[in-house]
TrEMBL record:
Annotated Gene3D superfamilies: Complement Module, domain 1
CDD domains, per database record: CCP
Keyword Repeat: yes
Protein name: Sushi domain-containing protein
Species name: Ciona intestinalis (Transparent sea squirt)
Superkingdom, taxonomy of origin: Eukaryota
Record key words, sorted: Disulfide bond, Repeat, Signal, Sushi
Amino acid sequence: MCTQRGFVVTGNQRMYCLNDQTWDRPPPTCQPAAGLCQALQVPQNGRFTDRRGQRNQVGNIIRLSCSNGYRVVSPSITRCLPDLTWSSTLGGCEAVGCSIFSAATGVSVPVGIEHAVGVVLRLSCYNGGQLQGGPSNIECLGNHVWSNPISSYTCL
């Protein structure tokens, strides 16, 4: 029996001790399992990279990365093990954007749209007030902050 995970017994598993105190056949050996791990599904807005170009082969490491405006939900790396399973289940890609939770009372922030990188919002005031603190159009930048902080806006 092989005690190391990912290895299988090859050769004779039954042997008999002969009168001259030798075995009747060579002993079995433990060898790494051969084959491929099951193909992984590429998550939406994601892509896989691997160093060897042999994605599902034993020993190969797969790295998940995401498109701009998305981030990896952990883990981001997995390895094809000798027992033909993956070392971990990869996360997916989730949209990242800018927070709208710092808006001051009275400032109207559009809801129901994604606040992802590259999105431009038009801020206004409830009840027709005058917006103060910066331009009314702000953009969610690549570093996940608004082009002008929402918290700097007030309504008169």
